[in-house]
Specification:
single chain, TIM Barrel, Immunoglobulin-like, 3 domains, eight-stranded mixed barrel, 27 strands, lysozyme activity, membrane, GH
């Protein structure tokens, strides 16, 4: 996690040489050339500050994942304009809480930690924390983790606490070399044990925990056993400076460059890609249920959020104690995302909810949505009945299938709030059609034996001209649907 100023030096050197050569021209040519030189200088200045780094090519195996852009920073980035960071499309940041010196086991807090936490929080950037580790024993790892947790307790932290494990030509390197001298298996066992000591302490204090390391350490026979950590619901963050990443199935976050450029930061910054499976992970808690308070939020020019309520078998859970919420892609109009991560008892639970940010037309679109759909099976037909939308709509569309492996089929009702489908179908959803766009989605409460689908499934629905992602969350019903639906 180091920065480089080579781009700045090259830009400044090129600009200086160009200005120097201007003196070889006559006065008229000199004036014209000066104007060009000023443009070049301004171009270099703006391109190094305003051109934000974007997400890399999606790695193999992460095509059906949500993808979010982030950075990681420390005191070495100097003063940061966090509003500029958010405006450049950055959704989260891992902020250094401190570091252990390489020559002796001395724990030092990052000088910019508090100001970075305050600035990022005010700008709406989700935060995780990391500690630059040089631990060589389990006891040292716990000591580092305690310092990190103490820093974390001063703020609401949405993302994991991270052990940043790196070589630095110091005592940690010497310890690793001595372990390797006893064989790769021994080195792997020692590295993993030290890492587990750090991560397990963070978890014992109610926090999500993750490890940061290079792909060489993650993939080495003498490195950390990241698979065992991932199997224990610890997250893995790998550094690999390339256009592609492969062969590391356990990772959640990929640090893809150390020379990124963002508004609000002078010089280079590490940039990261976070990948979140679109299927919700309940982590052994099937009773978990989360719902956003609003799926449509007014755009005001500032990052827009929506409250998310999470319950366990009907019992309301507590934000920042049982779960955290991070808001992604919520700067402008369109589809934003609420990323929910379980804490404490619920560690390992992850779910993403899409919601819409738009204008007044979007907010009033609820008048165009059907509701209260019910279905029934009778005489080989599936009967569908629903409450019509309150506003004027052109038509209604019913989609149907038997399980999530099938493609949806669709039929229009001719404006009626009732319809009989030929055949028996277990999954039904109803939407209104207005001006060629689909609004809302009504899911029947009593459909026959719905299968459990925990994921957020992207659909082709439109709302206010913007793409809308809809959840198909079907409840399992252990009895046949009654046939009392009268059409």
């Amino acid at each position: 996690m180091k920065e480089s100023r080579k781009a700045d030096m090259n830009a400044n050197s090129s600009s200086t040489n160009l200005i120097y050569k201007l003196y070889l021209f006559n006065t008229a040519d000199r004036i014209a050339a000066i104007a060009i030189a000023v443009f070049v200088v301004l171009f270099f200045a703006s391109s190094t500050v305003l051109a934000g780094t974007s997400l890399p090519k999606t790695p193999s195996g992460r095509e059906d994942y949500y993808k979010f852009l982030g950075i990681d920073v420390s005191e070495w980035q100097g003063d940061i304009n966090w509003n500029g960071i958010k405006a450049d499309g950055v959704d989260y940041a891992f902020i250094r809480a401190g570091a252990t010196t390489s020559s002796s086991f001395d724990l030092k807090e990052d000088r910019k930690f508090d100001i970075n936490m305050q600035g990022s929080g005010s700008a709406g950037v989700a935060r995780g924390l990391y500690w630059y580790s040089q631990a060589t024993t389990e006891e040292e790892a716990v000591a580092e983790a305690k310092k990190l947790v103490a820093q974390a307790k001063k703020y609401d932290v949405e993302l994991p606490l991270v052990m940043d494990l790196e070589f630095s030509n110091g005592r940690f390197d010497k310890a690793y070399n001595s372990w390797r001298a006893r064989g790769s298996a021994y080195a792997r066992q020692r590295m993993t044990s030290v890492a587990e000591a750090f991560l397990s302490y963070c978890r014992s204090q109610g926090y999500l925990a993750s490890i940061y390391l290079s792909t060489s350490l993650a993939g080495s026979f003498s490195g950390v056993d990241t698979k065992s950590l991932a199997d224990n619901s610890y997250e893995v963050w790998v550094a690999h400076y390339s256009n592609e990443l492969s062969a590391y199935p356990e990772y959640n976050v990929w640090q893809f460059t150390s020379t990124g450029r963002m508004q609000g930061i002078k010089g280079n910054v590490d940039c990261d890609a976070m990948y979140v499976d679109k299927s919700a992970r309940k982590a052994g808690n099937p009773g978990l249920d989360a719902e956003p308070a609003n799926t449509m939020v007014r755009y005001t020019g500032a990052p827009a959020t929506t409250n998310v309520n999470v319950s366990d078998n009907g019992k309301a859970l507590t934000l920042n104690k049982d779960y955290t919420v991070s808001y992604m892609n919520n700067n402008g109009k369109g589809t934003a995302y609420a990323l929910i991560k379980g804490k404490g008892t619920y560690v390992g639970y992850t779910e993403v909810f899409p919601y819409q940010i738009g204008d007044e037309e979007l907010l009033h679109s609820a008048d165009l949505e059907p509701s209260q759909a019910v279905t029934g099976i009778k005489n080989g037909k599936t009967y569908v009945k629903f409450t019509a939308a309150g506003g004027d709509v052109d038509d209604y569309r019913i989609e149907y299938r038997n399980d999530d492996s099938e493609e949806w089929k669709a039929v229009r009702t001719g404006g009626k709030a009732e319809y009989a489908l030929d055949g028996q179908y277990k999954q039904i959803r109803v939407s209104a059609v207005v001006g060629g766009q689909l609004y809302g989605m009504a899911l029947p409460d009593n459909s026959q034996k719905y299968e459990i689908i925990d994921g957020s499934v992207e659909s082709d629905y439109r709302l206010g001209g913007k793409a809308l992602c809809n959840r198909d969350k079907f409840k399992k019903i252990n009895k046949e649907v009654s046939e009392d639906v009268v059409i």
